[in-house]
Amino acid sequence: MPDCTSANTRCDECRLASTRIHSYVKKEALDCPKEVHPVIYTLSFTGSNSEANELLHATQARFLYTFKGGLLVRGAVREAAKDGGKSESQWQGLDGTVAMIRLKAAAREEARREMERWQDARPGPVWHRRYKRPSALKRASRWIGLLVPDEVIMERWEDPGAHYRHGNSGAVRRAGSSSRHRTPAEMEMERIQAAGDRRIQREISMLVDFPVDVQDGDSFDKVFCMEFGGRFKLTNRSPSSDSGHASLHRLNWLSMVHPEDKPEEDEHEDDE
């Protein structure tokens, strides 16, 4: 087996496989230490993406104290192929985090973006006057007929165009932020709703980095498969020992789940 434990020592085949992986995958995830023996489990089930996420979390928790640093399990889910054909659904990565935690994180990100969408044109708060309606008509001796307010309330000025009209400093909204766009929380809700249908047949692919060589049917393999229960059906088990190349085994899985974007084809063709 070639020494492909890092980017500097990878063989040409592994380097070519790494070019098919999307750039958002961290570089460290592509490295395959010598003590890693990756195994790919493929399962089928009927349910939601959240249930697949829970399975990933359960398998990690099962081996939390078994190996130093726990057991690294990566996963992805997609809709299964229909009528025995090829699935047209794209893989969606699983991170082991429940949907509500992701939604709360998206809501916090939404609030942060909303705060950044407004910025003051000068340091410190910008204020304008709002007059409280008087309880009774008060007439000044020199200005007959004018209302005199009981109280003047100072408020933050949040009129994005007023400073242009009056020449004053005020709260300025960043360019391009006035158009309606989906917030992080809304996008997360759409993702949860789309993945929440429990009637859809799906398949899960899990890449497990065992720190020991795990064979089919041995103790660690049985313990790992215990979490599947009767709900998840194991359809394929692919250890790196089959190919004899652990690094390439992992890189091929990463390129399948996180493929690089294909270049867009030029719609304009030269006239012949």
CA-based shape: globular
Helix-strand pattern: HEHEEHEEEHEHEHEH
- Rounded to an integer, what's the Rg over CA atoms? 29 Å
Question: Mean of the pLDDT scores?
Answer: 75
Largest sheet: 5 strands, antiparallel
Output the strand order for the largest sheet. Answer: 3-2-8-1-9
Structural class: alpha+beta
Helical stretch tally: 7
Strand content: 15-25%
User: Total number of β-strand segments?
Assistant: 9
Q: Which ranges are low-confidence, i.e. pLDDT below 50, for 5 or more consecutive residues? A: 126-179, 266-272
Helix content: 25-40%
Distance between the termini: 51 Å
- Count of discrete structural domains: 2
3D structure, described in words:
The protein has helices at residues 12-18, 49-62, 99-116, 162-166, 184-195, 219-226, 246-257; strands at 37-46, 72-79, 92-94, 118-120, 127-131, 152-156, 171-173, 201-210, 233-239. It has two domains: 12-102 and 185-257, no CATH class; 118-173, no CATH class. The strands form three sheets. A five-stranded antiparallel sheet has the order 3-2-8-1-9. Mean pLDDT is 75; it is low at 126-179 and 266-272. Helix content is 28%, strand content 20%. The chain contains seven helices and nine strands. The protein has 272 residues and is α+β, with helices and mostly antiparallel strands.
